[in-house]
Write a structure and sequence with these properties.
This protein is mainly β. The chain has helices at residues 126-130, 178-181, and strands spanning 5-10, 17-22, 25-30, 35-41, 45-50, 57-62, 66-71, 80-82, 89-94, 101-106, 111-115, 134-135, 139-143, 150-155, 162-167, 172-176. Helix content is 5%, strand content 47%.
């Protein structure tokens, strides 16, 4: 039985798979059998999102340790870690069109735009097997148009360089990342 569900995401590569954040882990369920298929046992996961471009890649928002990117074929340790926010990272969203672009929202009243290294596809290389977690800071921009914690973020389904965010005080902000795309 699952207690304290706080979020979830459908796997865009498998219509029968869903990831749910539950207390201190991410649980993966096969909807054909309605049974747990896998899990990532990791403390303080707030939110999850699947990378729509790369199969097996999951991004998690962490309370104290920022953002983790996981290869679900090796769920014991993240393949990338980003520092996240000055306080809790509350939500993450992968861009549906641009590979490696990730938004994060935090209780520090900011939305951050990240670029995950495209080289993270090569997770089976010997150097990564020896040291599977790499610490990087690929922050492209930090949006601070808020006076309170930001809890919701969403990419536009029509224009992949536009996103909206919602803060605790009810403020909705729509931003364009177009100026930052040339930094890829």
């Amino acid at each position: 039985m699952l207690h304290y569900l706080s979020g979830g995401a459908w796997d865009p590569h498998d219509v029968n798979s869903v990831a749910l954040t539950c207390e201190s882990s991410v649980q993966f369920f096969d909807l054909r059998t309605m049974k747990k298929a896998n899990s990532v046992e990791h403390a303080h996961v707030r939110n999850v999102d699947f990378d729509t471009k790369r199969k097996y890649i999951l991004v998690t928002a962490e309370d104290e340790s920022g953002i983790h990117i996981w290869d679900l074929r090796m769920p014991n340790v993240p393949i990338l870690e980003f520092p996240g926010h000055a306080h809790w990272t509350w939500a993450v969203r992968c861009n549906p069109e641009y590979d490696g672009l990730i938004l994060s929202a935090g209780t520090d009243s900011t939305v951050n735009l990240w670029l995950a290294s495209p080289s993270s596809d090569d997770i089976a290389s010997e150097s990564l097997l020896e040291s599977p977690t790499r610490l990087v800071d690929p922050l492209l921009n930090s949006y601070s148009d808020y006076e309170d914690s930001v809890y919701g973020i969403a990419w536009s389904s029509r224009e992949p360089w536009i996103f909206a965010s919602l803060s605790y005080d009810g403020r909705v902000v729509v931003e364009s990342i177009k100026p930052h795309l040339s930094k890829k």
